[in-house]
Design brief:
mainly alpha; two-stranded antiparallel sheet; about 75% helix
Length: about 300
């Protein structure tokens, strides 16, 4: 091998080593490149979605594992409640309330009421029942509330579909959907209010177990005070003014108006429960932020 060929080979090997070092440097730079806010938000949302779906699947498996009758009861509880209360009216001899068949009237009321009731229980128990999973860094206390809330709303949606399908199939009764947008507004405001209440109670029931017992006592007469079993238009003005402080009354009236074309009572105002739902949700998020580390330690 001549000396010129030897030097050429040495230069080529040096150039190849230099290129390899440059490629390695570029690779390291690309790996440690700062993440943009959009990429960080996307990654956080993906992790949040994965955790939520894993928790929903776990909650559903627990429901099935404990008793399949538990899932069945959740799906038929709405129908059973409507049938029992409707028969009371039918025995009295009243088949219509506000010119609407009593079963449709009560079914619409129970649809909203059961959404709110799930905000008092079982949604708040999400943190306590999943406390063992909070040791994992990817699972946060608020994730357990969201997962249980989504599962409860999903089961409730199936129950509502079964309710109105049964009324149509057996009795030929069907909603007229006079204002579908108002129906969705009432359902959305109800879900927002239930989530705010559920998250707030879930936080403080973890610290103080007696709160759950007090809430269960307070909510017992809630069905009577929420105009589920009767029409607000049948009450005197003084009674309406007192009951109108209950946001569920306005949500029930809005849903009945949008679904069945029922007449709203004079004090009806859908903005009141909507604002209250935003208020509870805001207070709940503030409380969670202030107590998020205590919830994990608890």
């Amino acid at each position: 091998m001549t000396s010129s060929a030897f030097f050429k080979r040495m230069q080529l090997s040096k150039q190849s080593k230099t290129h390899k070092k440059d490629d390695l440097f570029v690779t390291l730079i690309s790996k440690f490149k700062p993440i943009t806010p959009a990429q960080e938000l996307k990654r956080g949302f993906y992790n949040f979605k994965s955790v939520i779906w894993a928790l929903i699947f776990k909650e559903f498996k627990i429901r099935l594992g404990e008793s399949k009758l538990g899932i069945v009861w959740v799906l038929i509880e709405l129908i059973v409640s409507m049938i029992v209360m409707s028969w009371i009216w039918l025995i009295i001899g009243r088949t219509k309330i506000d010119n609407i068949h009593v079963m449709l009237f009560l079914g619409a009321g129970f649809t909203i009421f059961f959404i709110i009731r799930r905000g008092f229980s079982p949604v708040p128990q999400g943190i306590k029942s999943n406390s063992a999973l909070l040791n994992y860094p990817g699972v946060k206390p608020i994730d357990t509330i969201f997962a249980r809330f989504i599962l409860e709303m999903w089961l409730h949606s199936i129950a509502v579909i079964l309710l109105f399908f049964s009324l149509f199939w057996i009795l030929g009764l069907s909603p007229i959907f006079s204002d579908p947008l108002l129906c969705f507004q009432a359902l959305g405001s109800s879900a927002m209010l239930a989530l705010g209440i559920g998250l707030l109670l879930g936080i403080y029931q973890t610290f103080y177990e007696s709160i759950g017992k007090v809430i269960s006592i307070i909510t017992q007469p809630l069905m009577i005070m929420s105009a589920i079993l009767y029409s607000m238009n049948d009450l005197p003005q003084s009674a309406r003014e007192v009951l109108s402080w209950n946001p569920i009354v306005h949500l029930v009236s809005a849903f009945r108006q949008g679904l069945l074309g029922a007449n709203a009572f004079p004090e009806y105002d859908l903005s009141y429960p909507t604002f209250l739902g935003l208020f509870f949700l805001g207070i709940a998020f503030i409380s969670y932020h202030a107590n998020r580390f205590r919830l994990i330690q608890k």
